[in-house]
Every structure is written in C-alpha cells, then in structure tokens.
Amino acid sequence: LLLESRLWQALEQQEFELYLQPQVDLPSGALIGAEALVRWHHPELGTVGPDRFIPIAEESGLILPLGEWALRRAVALLERWRGIGLGHLRLAVNLSARQCHGDALLGQLDELLATSGIDPALLELEITETAAMQDPELSRALLQQLRARGIRVAIDDFGTGYSSLSYLKLFELDRIKIDRGFVKDIETDPDDAVIVGATIGLAHSLGLGVIAEGVETAAQAEFLRGKLCDEAQGYLFARPMCVDEFERTASAAL
Ligand code: G
Ligand code: G
Ligand code: MN
Ligand code: NA
C-alpha cells in the first residue's frame, strides 16, 4: 500500500505533528490539560488522521518508533510549558498495544524523565481496554511500573472492550475515560444514561477519577455534571488543535 511505505519516510521527514484536545474540569469548566492526538501532514494528501494510519502503523511495527516520538514530543511540551506559565497542565498520550507489550517503553520513559525534569504526574498514558485485556497479567505489571514512576494511567474507550469489572481492581489506575459511544446518546437512550451514571459511581467507589470523551452538547455536559463526572473532553469545549493554538488558548485562560 502507498501509505505503508510512505509512513516510515514520514517519520524521518518529520511529517507527524501532535494536535492537542483540551480537557476541562466539569464543575468549574477550567482547563486542566490535553490529550495528544497525532496527525500526518502528507505532502499530497494533506492532513491525514490517525484512523487512517494508526492501524497500518500497528501492523507494520512503525507504531513503536512513532509511539516513542509521541512520548518524546509530549515530554518536551510539558517541559516547555513549565517555562511559560503553563506548568499546571497535564498531557495525556495514547499507547498502542504493541508499546504496552514490548520491552522498550519503561526504558524510554526512564530516560525521558531523567533528562527532562518534568513532574511525572503531569504525564498521563492512555491504554485502551482492549489493549490492556490482551494480556491482563502483563498489563497489570506494566501499569504498576508506570504508577511506581509517578506517571498517571488512564483506561481509554472504557466500556467498549471485553471488560471485566474485576480488572478495575487488578490494575493500578488513576482514571477511566468513558467512551464517546456511551456519551453520544445519554440524553435519548435510557440504557446509556444508566450505564454512564453507574460507571461513574463504580469508578468513584474504587477511588478512580472519570473523564467523559466526545462531549458535544451542553445537555450532555449537564447530565455528566449531575452524575459527578470529574472531567470532560469534546467538541463542546474544543476540537483537537495545533500546539500554538492550544498554548494561546491556555495562556488566555490564566
Ligand atoms: O481524532 P482522532 O481522529 O485524533 O484519533 C483517532 C484515534 O487515533 C483515537 O482512538 C486515538 O486513540 C488514536 N491515536 C491518536 N494519536 C495516537 C498516538 O499517538 N498513538 C496511538 N497509539 N494512537 C493514537
Ligand atoms: O483516543 P481516542 O479514541 O479517545 O481519541 C479521541 C478521538 O475522539 C479522536 O479521534 C478525536 O478527534 C475524537 N473526538 C474528540 N472529541 C470528539 C467529539 O466531541 N465528538 C466526536 N465525534 N469525536 C470526538
Ligand atoms: Mn485516547
Ligand atoms: Na477513546
């Protein structure tokens, strides 16, 4: 495929860019950080979203160097923010299954933490439920190692995989991200409303935070606020944006 051969070149030629989508505290609306979402600026195709190349990168193994690049870039951003008055903001980075199950991740993180001096608690790693459940024992050990370094851990796309509630206890976590598939219909689908409300209650009773993703309407935000959801992310607040725009937005909010 055209894309696959071009992807390796793209990394060398620095055609990837991290976009940032703001995350807000639901009760106050305050900006608390962002999720990093990779984009590919293809010379002919224009901006290509991760849905089109992450699966190919997973398949081909490129996800490993791409994932390392994303971590390096994220840590550099956190370091930069410390110097421009944005040192309170967190940054969440997505991990692929291959990164979670390979043996390079912890070494990369140790090097980045040692050379940057960032507060590890400002870095959050998102692991999808599906990736975590591929090998629960290995995931449990990895998450424990991440938490031992002070790095935050979130379960992404919560509720979409073959989740077993017992793993919420097995894994050391900081929070779960409620998948936007549940958020989409909370006003119209009573089942989704019940699932979201119960998930928030369950997470809180286990001492976990909750962020809802894909929040698009004020009514959805209101519902989530009523259920004491901690944070939210979605088009209602902001779309993913380039770093410059994020920094301008964050500085204006100070
Ligand atoms: O907007 P959005 O299209 O940006 O992202 C689509 C999907 O791509 C999301 O599910 C997200 O988790 C994934 N994704 C975005 N950036 C990265 C990344 O750096 N690494 C991995 N593994 N997945 C990513
Ligand atoms: O990693 P994850 O699958 O959670 O990545 C978030 C994805 O959701 C990205 O593709 C991002 O662009 C997308 N997204 C973020 N906010 C919204 C939203 O409010 N509505 C929809 N439909 N998609 C969103
Ligand atoms: Mn994510
Ligand atoms: Na998600």
Task: Summarize the amount of helix as a percent range.
Answer: 40-55%
What is the mean predicted local confidence, pLDDT? 95
| Assembly level | single chain
Percentage of residues in DSSP E strands? 15-25%
- Note poorly predicted spans: none
N- to C-terminal distance: 46 Å
Domain EAL: 1-254
Organism: Pseudoduganella flava
Protein name: EAL domain-containing protein
Subcellular location: Cell membrane
How does this structure look, described?
This is EAL domain-containing protein. It is found in: Cell membrane. The chain is α/β, with parallel strands linked by helices and 254 residues long. The protein contains 12 helices and 9 strands. It has helices at 2-12, 50-60, 63-83, 97-101, 105-116, 129-134, 136-148, 165-170, 180-183, 190-205, 218-226, 243-252; strands spanning 16-25, 31-42, 46-48, 90-95, 123-128, 152-158, 175-178, 209-212, 231-232. The protein has an 8-stranded mixed beta barrel with strand order 1-2-4-5-6-7-8-9, surrounded by 4 helices. Helix 3 packs parallel to helix 5. The structure holds guanosine-5'-monophosphate (G) (2 copies), manganese (II) ion and sodium ion. The site of sodium ion has 5 residues, from strand 6.
